[in-house]
Structure formats: structure tokens, C-alpha cells
Amino acid sequence: MTALILALVFWIVAWGVNIWLAGSRWSGALAVRIAIPVLFGFTLLVLWEGLVRAFGISPVILPPPSMVVETFANSTQILWEDFRQTVLKGALRGYAIGAVAAVLCAIAIDRSAFLTRGLLPIGNFVAALPIVGIAPILVNWFGFDWQSKAAVVVVMVFFPILVNTVQGLRETDMMQRDLMRTYAASYIQTLVKLRLPAAMPFMFNGLKIATTLALIGAIVAEYFGSPTRGMGFRISTGVGSLSIDLVWAEIAVAALVGSAFYGGVAWVEKRVTFWHPAQRG
To answer: pTM for the full model?
Structure first.
């Protein structure tokens, strides 16, 4: 119980420090804004460690964070290969293909009333399909390598980006479009100089939502067929062989990659939509 008491004391002290930092005059500083969530996450890990050690929980059920860190350090080669297969080959390629296809379809839908009434309901229908149902079908169609995982990712990211982009293209009001027509602007000129810039905040909302969906889709697809590498493959085989520490190491990699991916898209959004009121500090 000593480990649990020490963990609780540390958690209470860290909680107090976090409250003080959040209410201090330095709360707006970048270092403080980074330190608060990092300290909060670290206290949760310390509490997790204390609970596991105090109650003698088996590593097969819940390994302590120290064991996960040790496995992470000893399995960097395996984790890197899995990262390359799942993220670089499957998730990122599927994300790029799905994003480009969604933006092009959104422009076509905005241009055509027929597609607005025909394609959007179909997209909604596809988005409602369960991923565990379509993943094995796409694996059978495209094979066991990264192509099938990218196809699953395309299906998952397409609709959120499509809906947000269509909404963004309709954000400009009639007066702005009338002004462009007064200047004899063509549809392409109006699209590039007025409507796409106005749609950027909506597009980035869809892109940020799709970052997590892309990684989830690639990992789930690997459950239904994959070469002998990949994060989903490793999680599936790790659970079967009771290597739960390796499973948690893969989960940690997925969480870090997903957070970095989301943060990267948010960083690009701030640079592209710096003019929007939401981005003004």
C-alpha cells in the first residue's frame, strides 16, 4: 500500500500545482499551456503505477506503465516497422486520397443540384456502414498489403470532409457573390478567390476529425488481414499471446501519432486561416 499512498500524495500535489499554474498570470504562456496537460497526464501514469503495484494486479490483465516503457524501449524496431506499415503506408495515403476526393466531390456537389440531392444521401449511407463489416470486404478486394487499409481509411474520412467542405462552400452570402459577378469573375475565379478561402475553416474541421478516423480505420483493417507487421496485426497477435505490455506499447504509439497528426493539421489551419476570428489571439 506504500506505493499507492505515495502515488496519491504525488497526485494531490501535482493537482494543486496544476490549479496554481492554470490560475496564475503566466497561464497564457506557451510553456505553461504545454506543462499543464503534460503534468496532468504524468500524474495519471503515477497513479496507475501505484494502483497496479499496491493491489498486485497481474501484468496479463494490466501492466504497470514502467513495464510498458521497458517494452517500448526494447521493441523500437518492431514498433517502427508497425508504424511504417500502418501509418505511413496505410493511414496517410488513405487520408490524402480521401481528402482530395472529398474536396473534389464537394465542389461538384456545389455546382450541381442533382448531385446535392443524389450524392450526399449516398455519402451519408456509406458513412453509416460499420467499419467491421466493410473492412474484410475491402481486404478481399485489394489484398493484404497497405492498399486495403488505405481503402478503408478513404471510406472513413471521405464523408466528414465532404460534408464540412460543402457547408463551407455555401458560407459566402449573396452580396459577396453578386460583387464577384459585377467584376465579371468566372466560376473558377469566384471559387478560388472567394468561396474556397471562406470554406477553409469548415474544411479544416473535417480534416481534423478525419485524422483520428484515419488511424482507427487502418488499425481495424489490419485485424482482417495483414502482412506480418502493422499496429493492428501486432495488437491482435499480442492479445492472443498474452503480450499485453507490447499491446499497450502499440496503443501508446497510436495515441502519440494521432495527437501529433491532429496537432499538425491544427498548426496548418492556423497558418492558412490566420484571418479568421477564431485564430486571432
So the answer is: 0.84
Backbone torsions φ then ψ of 225, nearest 5 degrees: 145, 125
pLDDT per position as a tens digit, 40-82 = 888 888 888 888 888 888 888 889 999 999 999 998 999 999 9
- Full residue range of the structural domain in which residue 35 is found: 2-57
Residue 64 lies in a domain: no
Task: Give the least confident one: 201-205, 240-244, 249-253.
Answer: 240-244
- Looking at the structure of the chain, the number of domains it has is 2
Whether 52 and 76 share a structural domain: no
